[in-house]
Amino acid sequence: MTSPRTVVIAGAGIGGLTAAIALAKRGFPVSVIEQAERLEAIGAGIQLSPNASRVLVALGLEERLTPYVVVPQALNVMNARTGQVLARAALGDAAVRSYGAPYWVIHRGDLHTVLRETIEATPLIALQLGVRAEDFAVHDGAVTVGGRKGGQPIETRGAALIGADGLWSVLRGRLTNPMQPRFARHSAWRALVPAEAVAPALRALTVNLWLGRHAHLVHYPVRGGSLINVVAILRDRWREAGWSAPGDRDEVLARFPAGMWHGAPRDLIAAASGWHKWALYDCRPLKQWGAGPVTLLGDAAHPMLPYLAQGAAMAIEDAAVLAQCMSQASDDLPAALRRYEDKRRKRTTRAQRAARRNGTVYHMGGAEAFLRGLALVAMRGTGLLRPYNWLYHWQPD
Ligand SMILES: Cc1cc2nc3c(=O)[nH]c(=O)nc-3n(C[C@H](O)[C@H](O)[C@H](O)COP(=O)(O)OP(=O)(O)OC[C@H]3O[C@@H](n4cnc5c(N)ncnc54)[C@H](O)[C@@H]3O)c2cc1C
Known about the structure:
12 helices, FAD/NAD(P)-binding domain, about 30% strand, 18 strands, alpha/beta, globular
């Protein structure tokens, strides 16, 4: 029988799994339903800035994550054409000193695996795979989630429902005015390259950002340094939903032509096979995230473009704040959820907008790009991360 305190979470992505762990730590039984039949290690690199790593450490996950994470020693920003390092900011120990938590990078699949294994070892959490949430009904202070498993209708009951069902959230459409994600006219192409296949400079323990006209490239090591995660972002009309469409190396290489792109990033692109791509979408900030015992979390609540590297981080922050608010007012869960939304809306809106703005700055060309380069050089690295203090210093109350 379902406990009167059971929280149903729809979606076992990074946000849903972190929320399940955070809620179970506060004594809530959790029922997670996930549409995928299997939880596979899909995706590529994800940056866990100190605002997110702080939450994962507080949840007791540091030991399990350590074999997978890479601690980059610096962030380098390069001119795509000349290869000139425009700015360099220290990370590593300097990040821990500045923000009180580490700056990590990790393969999304490794983070997902650690979260899944933690859930499997937590008796308060039940995970049902192959269940797609479609709707919900609120009655007598409880909520019933209607869905499908193998084509058959299935119901899951709880005291509260958290829609952590990602960018294309079905539950968002049931809760608020249906808001379709807007296409950002860019796609992200990702690949993983064995570290030994590239020159030493390309496998250094650094996060590297190459800024070109209408395109940029990010790369950093993952999986303990054995693989290099490469993400190329470019203008595109291709707009299919999904995270893992196959991509063609020659097509991406053609978008980073010699003459406009330095040899090093081109070598990296050429060394990578097995490209996948996804079209970039975000949403305008939502005015309302929830009603009664139902709310949203992560990309379902605030899809954002990847230019601030905060999609996973914001979902992880949400999880911590949600668990905190629910444990503080567990006798009035709707009130707890409204408090959670109030605490999160302003910050996630700011992150969504900052991500959009970064996209414009990253892809400048001509005189604008020249001025951007001068500004970056003038910062000399020390000022590079200062605009992000509001992001990285964050901690739950
Ligand atoms: C397969 C996959 C690969 C990704 N790869 C990358 C990447 O390489 N780089 C990157 O920066 N970001 C990637 N992302 C996005 C990134 O993980 C998220 O932006 C971020 O972590 C926020 O997490 P989230 O939990 O809110 O959403 P997501 O991580 O998108 O998780 C949502 C989960 O909900 C499930 N779901 C959706 N609809 C339903 C439903 N109706 N009922 C039940 N379950 C449902 C999905 O299957 C998914 O598991 C990927 C996401 C996915 C799902």
